[in-house]
Design a protein that fits this description.
By secondary structure, the chain is of the alpha/beta class. It has two domains: 188 residues, NAD(P)-binding Rossmann-like Domain (Rossmann fold), CATH 3.40.50.720; 153 residues, N-(1-d-carboxylethyl)-l-norvaline Dehydrogenase, domain 2 (Orthogonal Bundle), CATH 1.10.1040. The chain is built from 14 helices and twelve strands. The chain has an eight-stranded mixed beta sheet with strand order 5-2-1-6-7-8-11-12, with helices on both faces. Strand 6, helix 3 and strand 7 form a beta-alpha-beta unit. Helix 6 packs parallel to helix 11 and helix 12 packs antiparallel against helix 13. The termini are far apart. The relative contact order is 0.11.
């Protein structure tokens, strides 16, 4: 509890995890570029709500700084743990912003989508980088000062947060990060950070971009045959790339990696993967949009180049074709630029074979 913590990016994931840390009594400073959000947190606190009615909503008083006020940290005790929770394209400058206020033994935690540890290491060095994956968390910044979680907590049934060192060893500082994020939901320390990271990237590659370019939420995508099968193809390509890169992958959306890898071309594997996805939406009433779908609705820049675009890039490096991921990257980019309107037929009408 004596550590000084900074949350750089108090949006959906950063706001959610950080609010629970603050509620537990941790010394947390929230830093965010959205003035209205900062002012709402200062004025009213940070409000956390859940779609799951059995989880009590709460509001916690927090310390919040705008980017222009971060320089004031120079007059205070240095930061021990800095969580970078910005979009991937903002990782480098956000890390540079907080790096100068780190304690000598301080370090930066990437609590983000995508693979951003290397970008952070380029600023602070590999020795000051820890990774943290938030898997199947389903949170969104609903309004200034208000984060909402659209799905139930993982609890004892699913481990949401996975904390790991880039070298794979279990360390005291990784355990310290685990204990902090565990205030929000189930957490563990993993020796397989890179495998966990790529597995989460595959899950995002299957869900985020397709929501962004169709305008549909996650459940609506899975319930349409053509869209569901396209998501399976996206995942199949991404898994095969990850395996070629040498990652030991975890289950992806409850689908075994080998099943998903074989689903593009193997009818039995494809059927099994589809059944698992259908079972998931049939047992859930969630209408939560994946984060990229939320970004598109808000007119924000998407992370498509860091998700499906990265799959394409790495596929070229290892000699694996990724036509579905390439097509989706192009479509989302065009919708983002306003060249196309979000429409399911961008995917339904694709002819890749």
């Amino acid at each position: 509890m004596g550590r000084k913590i900074a949350i750089v990016g108090a949006g959906a994931v950063g706001g959610y995890a950080g609010a629970y840390m603050a509620k537990a009594g941790a010394d947390v400073t929230f830093i965010d570029p959205w003035p209205e959000h900062v002012e709402a947190m200062r004025r009213e606190g940070l409000r956390i709500t859940h779609a799951a009615t059995q989880v009590e909503p709460f509001t916690v008083k927090v310390r919040a700084l705008h980017l222009t006020e971060v320089q004031g940290l120079a007059k205070e005790a240095p930061v021990d743990i800095a969580f970078v929770c910005m979009k991937s394209y903002d990782t480098a400058w956000a890390t540079m912003l907080i790096a100068q206020y780190l304690a000598p033994g301080g370090f930066v935690v990437s609590l983000q989508n995508c693979m951003n540890e290397e970008t952070i290491a380029a600023v602070v060095g590999w020795g000051k980088v820890v990774g943290c994956i938030a898997s199947q968390i389903g949170v969104g910044l609903e309004a200034p000062g208000h984060v909402h979680r659209g799905i139930g907590k993982g609890g004892s049934t699913y481990t949401v947060f996975r904390v790991g060192e880039v070298h794979g060893r279990i360390t005291e500082r990784a355990e310290a990060v685990r204990s902090l994020v565990a205030h929000a939901d189930a957490a563990k320390v993993t020796s397989n950070l890179w495998g966990e990271r790529w597995s989460k990237l595959v899950a995002n590659a299957m869900q985020n971009g397709i929501s962004a370019c169709t305008g549909l939420n996650g459940s609506e995508v899975v319930r349409q045959d053509a869209l569901r099968r396209f998501t399976i193809r996206l995942g199949s390509e991404a898994v095969r790339v990850g395996q070629a890169l040498g990652y030991t992958l975890e289950d992806i959306l409850k689908i075994a990696p080998d099943t998903l890898a074989n689903a593009d071309g193997d009818a039995a594997a494809c059927k099994k993967a589809e059944e698992i996805r259908m079972k998931a939406v049939e047992s859930s009433a969630s209408v939560q949009r994946p984060s990229m779908g939320q970004d598109m609705l808000k007119g924000r820049r998407t992370e498509i180049q860091f998700l499906n675009g990265l799959v394409v890039q790495k596929g070229v490096e290892v000699g694996i074709a990724t036509p579905a991921n390439a097509a989706l990257t192009d479509i989302v980019t065009r919708v983002e630029r306003g060249e196309l309107k979000a429409d399911p037929h961008h995917i339904i009408d694709l002819r890749l074979n």
